[in-house]
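hiii, so i know i said id send this last week but things got crazy w the move. better late than never?? heres the sequnce for the chain we talked about at the cafe, plus the structure i predicted for it. fair warning i was half asleep when i ran it
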Amino acid sequence: MTQDKPNKFAEADYANKNFEHQDLSELELVKCSFTQCRFNGADLSELRTTHCRFEECDFTNARMNASVFCESSFDNCTFTAADLFVSRFENCRMLGATFAEANLGGVTIEGGNWSWASLRFQKLEGLDLSGIMFTETDFTGADLTNAVLRDADLTKANLSQAKLIGADLRGANISGADLRTADIKDAHLDISQAVYFAQCHGANVE
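okay and structure toks below
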């Protein structure tokens, strides 16, 4: 990427590249690959990615607000304190991604696989997360008030101390999920989920 900042990159590959604090705003990336690259403090606002792959990249403190990520993967990437305000993820793969202290306000997530991601203490209230894969995702302390999780895969997800107040979980797979300290007041559960929740709290359901 050159200093005159062209608007579009296609089918470019980068490995161990340092993009720290660079102005990469309003770029369009198509079928690009980034491996172990550093975007710490970079301006990636209004970025658009399509069919891109990011692996073990660091976006700590990056500005990524109003960005659109379409059918891209961010495996084992770090988004610590990144600003993702009103960003959009469309059918993305976020395996093992971490979002400690990231700003996910107004984010939109449509489909995709967020398994093994860390969304600890994130504010996700009211989001439509239907049908998304969250296998073993860490939602410890997350606020999922009024979130829609219908038909999502929450197998073995960590929902310890999560707020699921008014959330719609009907049809979601919650097998093995930690619900012992989750707040599910007014949550919408199907019969099998209600039985599982009771069992998590030591009930013998016959």
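btw The mean pLDDT is 93. thought thatd interest u
miss u guys!!
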